[in-house]
Automatic annotation (TrEMBL):
This is Putative PLC-like phosphodiesterase, TIM beta/alpha-barrel domain-containing protein. GO terms for molecular function: phosphoric diester hydrolase activity. InterPro entries: PI-PLC_domain, PLC-like_Pdiesterase_TIM-brl. One of its GO terms (biological process) is lipid metabolic process. Transmembrane segments: none annotated. Gene3D superfamilies: Phosphatidylinositol (PI) phosphodiesterase.
Length: 349
């Protein structure tokens, strides 16, 4: 049986915002970290759980390139996490162990060392998976199919916020290839989905990827359960309309495992099910069957639970002994994840 995937830009993927900003990440020796946290588990676990997009903030720091939370555009010891190569080696190990998977990295780029960023990826062993800028669609055309990307081993897409890096280092300038809505609180206002100022309008057809940000300015772990339920579904629909009836390719969230229902996993499952086979869930698709032929699988519905915790519960760590208050109604979603490894359903007409 022949198996073909759709073009890469026809799918939706989970992306973690500040993927490196992990609750239990140790601070530098002798330093009290002062920053917000956005995720609960390692990048390796994020990838194993089905995340396929990573947002990484990179800075020159201590004669190296580090992952760091910005403070006036600079990295300091109190908001630094670790050398970026450590996280990139996690990505390399995952790609080596999973030869049909594709990973996208979006970099908030404050690296000024000449050739520093491209050399970082080379030193991490990721150049062998590199999707070259020369092969990226420039006018909104479809990307290669996921099958073609896997067969050619071009399984790592990297985008930078620094336009100069495309010509100087061969790293794609993000907003030449994707549109993006506002981040932070401006990106989660009900009924509104404005584009980020660096991005073209969401309904532009000159870029074929769409990144939807869905996270508040200040991450609050307990609130993420409520945020990732009905409000997230509502915002995906709002941004779909703002983008001219185009669904997001990446949905970027904090605390990706948390939800009062199916959360971001459920949303991308439904989006991909409709793209692949015209069904409401990937699990209803039938290999080799005509488009629209679906297994009889009940898609569960959930009623959002209102979080009644009245106090701030984010992880702002002022000392090693700091702890967070957890809402008893907000627990990690241990979802059964449907991997779309090689996209093993053929769309036929």
């Amino acid at each position: 049986m022949q198996v073909n995937g759709l073009p890469f830009n026809k799918y939706s993927w989970i992306m973690t915002h500040n993927s490196f900003s992990i609750i239990d990440a140790p601070p530098l020796p002798g330093v009290q970290r002062l920053t917000f946290y956005n995720q609960e588990d390692t990048v390796t676990n994020q990838l194993r759980n089905g995340v396929r997009g990573l947002m990484l903030d990179m800075y020159d720091f201590e004669n190296d390139i580090w992952l760091c939370h910005s403070f006036q555009g600079q990295c300091f010891n109190f908001n630094a996490f670790q050398p970026a190569i450590n996280t990139l080696k996690e990505v390399e190990a995952f790609l080596a162990e999973n030869p049909t998977e594709i990973v996208t990295i979006v970099i908030e780029d404050f690296v000024h060392t000449p050739k520093g960023l491209i050399n970082l990826f080379i030193n991490a062993g990721l150049d062998k998976y590199w999707f070259p800028v020369s092969a990226m669609p420039k006018e909104g055309e479809d990307w290669p199919t996921v099958t073609e990307m896997v067969q050619s081993n071009r399984r790592l897409l990297v985008f930078t916020s620094d336009a100069s890096k495309e010509a100087e280092e061969g790293i794609a300038y993000q907003w030449r290839y994707m549109v993006e809505n506002e981040f932070g609180d401006n990106g989660i206002q009900r009924g509104s989905c404005p584009h980020r100022k660096e991005s073209k309008p969401l309904n532009s057809r000159s870029a074929s990827l769409f990144l939807q940000n869905y996270f508040p300015t200040y991450p609050v772990e307990a609130d993420s359960c409520k945020e990732h339920s009905a409000p997230l579904v509502d915002m995906v629909n709002t941004c779909y309309r703002a983008a001219g009836n185009v669904l997001p390719n990446f949905i970027a969230v904090n605390y990706y495992m948390r939800s009062d229902g199916g959360g971001v996993f459920d949303i991308v499952d439904k989006i991909n099910g409709r793209a692949l086979c015209g069904c409401n869930t990937v699990t209803a698709c039938q290999v080799g069957a005509p488009f629209g032929s679906c297994n009889n699988i009940t898609v569960p519905t959930t009623s959002p639970v209102t979080n009644t915790a009245g106090s701030f519960t984010g992880y702002v760590q002022f000392s090693r002994s700091a702890s967070a208050v957890h809402s008893p109604k907000c627990t990690p979603l241990m979802a059964i994840i449907v991997y779309i490894q090689a996209m093993a359903f053929k769309r036929t007409f």
